[in-house]
Amino acid sequence: MEKKTVVLIPCYNEELTIEKVIKDFREKLPDAEIFVYDNNCTDRTAEIALKAGATVRKETRQGKGNVIRSMFRDIDADCYIMVDGDDTYPADFAPVLQRLVLEEGVDMAIGDRLSSTYFTENKRPFHNFGNKLVRNLINRLFDADIKDIMTGARAFSRDFVKSFAVMSKGFEIETEMTIFALDNRLNIAEVPIEYRDRMEGSSSKLNTYSDGIKVVRTIFSLLRDTRPMKFFGVIGVFFLLVGICFFIPIIIEYANTHLVPKFPTLIVITAAWIVGILSIFCGMILTVIKNQSRQEFERFLNLLRMR
After folding, report:
1. Which of 44, 62, 178, 221 could covalently link to 15 via disulfide, CB atoms 3.0 to 4.6 Å apart?
2. What are the tens digits of pLDDT across the range 292-303?
C-alpha cells in the first residue's frame, strides 16, 4: 500500500514567508498533503496559505503545543513532517527525514541545526546559550546524546504521533517530544540540516527568558515523572548529607563532654534524615509504578501496529 506523508506547519503571523514555505515543500514532496494551522493569526497568513494550495485549519488555543496537539489528533498518516512557517529551514531536509521514517523505521527523525549553520546564522546570542543549556541538561539527566533538542524540523512515525500525549502548551513542546522518545526507547535519528535566520521584517515569537524558564521547568518536571529514582534519590541524598554534616560536630562534642547541648539542631537533623529516607523510598515506589506504565505503553504500541 502507498504510504501517506503530511507536512504540518503551525503558524502565528507568518504572512511574509508562508507562501514560499508551502511552495518549497510542495516541490520536494509533491505527493504530500500540506496542513497549515492558523493559531489566531492577525495578518494574512491563513489567506495566503489557502491560495498557495495548503489545507488550512484553525486552532484558537494559543501556543505551539496546543497546535501540535490538534494536528496529531486530527490527521492520520504514515509519516508526519513538521516544520515552522518562518522559512528558516530549507525544504531539502524533508525527503531525507521522510525516508528515515518510512524506510528505516525511525520514530522521530530530527533536523539538527546546531551541527550545521545555526550558530553563524542566528543573531540572538541568548538563543544560542539557551539551546546549549537545554541540550546539555537533557543529555546529562537522561543519559542521551541528542545534538539538537529545540529544532522545529522533525519527522514522526504514526506510532509516535498516536501514542504521544501532548501536555505542553507552548514552545516547550520540542523538549517534551524529545524526552518522550528517550523515555520510551523509541527509535531516534538525527540529520544535520541547514538553518538560515529569519528574513527582514519577520519576528520570532519565542521569548528568550519566559519561554526559556518554561523549558527548564518542563525538563525537571519530566525528569520527576520519567526518572523518579534519580529525581527523588538526589533530593533524599541531599537531605541525608546535610543531616550528617550537622550531626558530626554534635557527635564529636558528645564524645568529648558526654553532653548534647544542641537539642534543636539534633531535632532538625532528625527531620532532615526522615525527609531524605522518605524521598528515597518515594523514588523507589514511583520507579516500580513507572516500569509498569512502560510495560503498558509497549502493549499499547503493539495494539496500535495491529490496526
Report:
1. 44
2. 998 898 888 888
